[in-house]
Automatic annotation (TrEMBL):
The name this protein goes by in its record: Calmodulin
Molecular function (Gene Ontology), one example: calcium ion binding
PANTHER family registered for this protein in UniProt: CALMODULIN LIKE 3, MYOSIN LIGHT CHAIN 1, 3
One Gene Ontology cellular component annotation held by this UniProt entry: myosin II complex
InterPro entries: CALM/Myosin/TropC-like (IPR050230), EF-hand-dom_pair (IPR011992), EF_hand_dom (IPR002048)
Length: 142
């Protein structure tokens, strides 16, 4: 219920199932809760992840909330730069900022992302998984 309330405060309405799935992704001992060890493991795995394959739903919520210093439900360009620098380092910072804010990125720090906009921008860049092709039989007709 705490996570659902936090998501609501950020302007994202989620179903109970969606919130349960976020918790399940990081719940190593399957007790339906995220304890400190699981939280820490999730955070470290995502910070170090270079593949984009780590479960990231809860991480995105946590990271957004950490850098929304004013609790406004939106992060500025400056706040986002800190967030992305922590996650990707100096080498990928500019590319990641452009991916989130597009070509409208201004050097003076103007612009904001709401939580929903942030999730949309992050999810657009997820690795694409190719659907499996159905096997077809190649029998010869006589």
């Amino acid at each position: 219920s705490d996570l659902m309330d936090a998501l609501k405060a950020l302007g994202k309405r989620s179903t109970k199932k969606e919130v349960e799935d976020m918790i399940w992704e990081v719940d190593e001992n399957l007790d339906g809760c995220v304890d400190w060890e699981e939280f820490h493991l999730m955070f470290q795995r995502n910070i170090k992840d270079k593949t984009g394959l780590e479960p990231f739903q809860l991480f995105n919520v946590v990271q957004f909330m950490m850098y929304d210093r004013t609790n406004s439900g939106a992060v500025s360009v400056d706040e986002t730069m800190h967030m992305l620098y922590a996650r990707y380092g100096k080498d990928r910072l500019e590319a990641e900022m452009k991916a989130l804010f597009g070509d409208d990125l201004k050097a003076d720090g103007d612009g904001c992302l709401t939580f929903t906009q942030y999730l949309e921008a992050v999810n657009v860049r997820l690795p694409k998984v190719e659907p499996k092709k159905k096997a077809t039989s190649r029998r010869r007709r006589r």
